[in-house]
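User: Can you fold this complex?
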Amino acid sequence: MHAEEKLTYETWPAEPERSTLEAKNKFLGFWLFLGGETVLFASLFATYLALKDKVPSPEHALAKDLYDLPLTFVATMLLLTSSLTSVYAMYHMKNFNTQKMMLWLGVTVALGLGFLGLEIYEFSHYVHEFGHTFTSSAFGSAFYTLVGFHGAHVTFGLAWILALILRNYKRGLDLYNAPKFYVASLYWHFIDVVWVFIFTVVYLMGMVG
Amino acid sequence: MSTLTQKKGFGATIWDFLTTVDHKKIAILYLLAGGFFFIVGGIEAVLIRMQLAVPNNDFVSAGTFNEIITMHGTTMIFLAAMPILLGFMNAVMPLQIGARDVAFPFVNALGFWLFFFGGVFLNLSWFLGGAPDAGWTSYASLAIHSKGHGVDFYVLGLQISGLGTLIGGINFLVTIINMRAPGMTYMRMPLFSWTTFVASALILFAFPPLTVGLTLMMFDRMFGSNFFVVANGGNTVIWEHLFWIFGHPEVYILILPAFGIFSEIFSTFSRKRLFGYSSMVFATVLIGFLGFMVWAHHMFTTGLGPVANAIFAVATMAIAVPTGIKIFNWLFTMWGGSVKFTTPMYWAFAFIPSFVMGGVTGVMLGTAPADYQYHDSYFVVAHFHYVIVGGVVFGIFAATHYWWPKMFGTMLNETLGKITFWLFFVGFHLTFFIQHFLGLWGMPRRVFTFLPGQGYETSNMISSIGALFMSLGVIVLLINVVMTSVKNVKVGNDPWEDGRTLEWTIPSPPPFYNFKQLPLVRGLDPLWLEKTAGKKGMTPAEPLGDIHMPNSSFIPFMISFGLFFAAFGVLYNGEKSWAVPVIIIGLLITFGSMLVRSVKDDHGFHIHKEELMDENDKGVKA
Amino acid sequence: MANQQLNSRNPRVDLEYRRRKSAEEMRYQVVSFSLMIFLTLVAFAAVAIKGFTAWFTAPFIVLLAFVQVIFQLYYFMHMSHKGHEAPSLFLYFGLFFALVMALAFMTIIWW
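Assistant: Here's the predicted assembly.
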């Protein structure tokens, strides 16, 4: 059975994301990449923790002045829900239901866009209301780099999933593109994992003081 | 796409190498590029020794000297030692585990081109306003204040080449986990494959902190952030931590593959199974793990406090235990063996005392209170050259002679090989042994000159003479390479006649699909087992069938070129009006190429059973 | 680099079983999602209610974050399934190094 062969509901394998050697390699390679990403974000978190509230003079805004609980909560709910919708998409992928998979991926993208919009609003709010910018203090640099790196991951993930949807909309699922969808959804979950630590370590702990 | 037996023109050969995804050709590219940078770094080393040969010398200025030492260290670590080792991993590891290629041939090519463009970018600094001058560690307290664009070249060049190394590491890990031949269990893997595995895991976890450190430095120098600007709340110690969290595992990324190379050579030329194979594997993994827990021993004098210093000192000394296990295993491998002194064996034999000396000074430096005395003196310079030259460079020379016939199908001259060895070996000890004492007598490292009458003159002169010997050794090796390539006497599958592992079961150089039929592995040293059972080759594990191969691609080159192009824009950001457009165009090239790769289906091609059989009938010596 | 299918089980026999199995798994996913939302609510509430000291709240919410991440990994990312030995090994090593780094940056950078 070759990767590009047309399959039916009956012949679709139980684990389409791992049923060819290339798919197995892609699956494992991507998990290893996520292991490396963990250390990448750890470096950014560690830098943030070391530079939290390190500002040149007392009039600069600190973590406890900046963060807004309701905004962070809404953003968190959007991203957590998008994680669930991408699980739904993979559920339909395993059931060889291209239409429904695309639909749920579309919902995931919409939720991700909502999250991104909130983040952009939040950043511009900090800049204009508090003068808290990337260049105003070490705290600002560390904050925007950590949260911005996550935002860049969200943006890249959205572009990736959109590209997959557009490319495969007409031709449907096969063993060549199923691993691609699966890996993209792993990436999306990983973004969510990072966000769980960001809202805990940056926002909630920032407000605790 | 049948290119089994085709003569190619020069242009076609170049295009072939620009687009290749074959691990053996990528290995040759790594060896060529890494070898080139090794020569560049070597010339820089010679310039350093010329400047320091006599007191009060003004051969180069103080500023130029700083640039030369920075580029010598950076080039040798990132652009010479690591790529050459990655080259050997590419050439040999898939053959040793019985795979037809690596897991991601495309990514493999991408890794090479990223490294190559990163290295070129870094070295272009010499022609574009001055090289980096803040030391190879580029401590932020120096680097932030360095004038000109030198440090910017360092940051961007290493960032690009570091990405290449990272994806190379992931590629090797997946290859080893998923693509071992039937019967090749983990505990039957040759030691070089094991060390490739552990070194790749170290790459996976060590390079992200470097990526982050370089990104922060880039933001500070080019985009106005304040990570290391103390007046705005920044902290330069963050760079030290990030750099050494990467930097310490990095030395194990270099030395572990060298350990693997020596393990292969000791057992081949002692004609004896490697002594204590499982303890060797255990020691390799343990060194890899401990390598992550000791980074702060580079920062004892930063002032971390007695508790941190004590913890990191103890962890550092613990590494001596698995390393000692290895040393004894190598000695016991030779003990009672029927030892054959070939050129690779010369290097392996000389490696043991040389490396042990570096290890002993390492434990001395790891003793935190004593380190306050040794720190920033020539004692440190002597220590790390003993482990890196005495370990890694000896390993590279050994591997060059050992695997040259497998990679190029012809043997390097043994006599010239031994001349290379003696020149380099004597030169190495002449250069660096005396530097231990220079350090203990108080000569600080990274100074561009010294005064007469302080007792440093003779020793520095001896050291410089040693550098001359080392250069001669390298020149003899180059002559050897040219002579051998011109003569081009072809050799068979197992030119050393004592090969034990799978790479010696197939032709030299191997056909592009490596194994016509995947071999059945019955134990450690599979070829040796078959030989002792009276057979000539391996038993195949599968019937002859179609072989699936990946297509060549120019996209890896384009992705890397885009980043290289964009790096110029980042470098001149806020200074030249064309900077921002250049960044945008460069990133468009990179991400556009990635998109093309993503949406264009590439299923590869098949070599048909009949073609493989034809070749057999015609008796083509592949 | 063979592209052939590796698990060659007869698809018709277990088709129905598989469909029910994955429907059941999807129910677990929804349950774990509800738990994750609940944990998030508790964490935000612990901060919003000003009564607790930071010495309680900070470790508590970090603990909640870890529990939630375990749910993500094992259910949403299917790490509980077979064939995830190497992924979990490397991910846990990554997490371990992450903790070591965070600890180091919080304790021995003090200028």
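Residues 63 and 76 of chain A are 18 Å apart (CA to CA). Residues 98-130 of chain A form the longest helix (33 residues).
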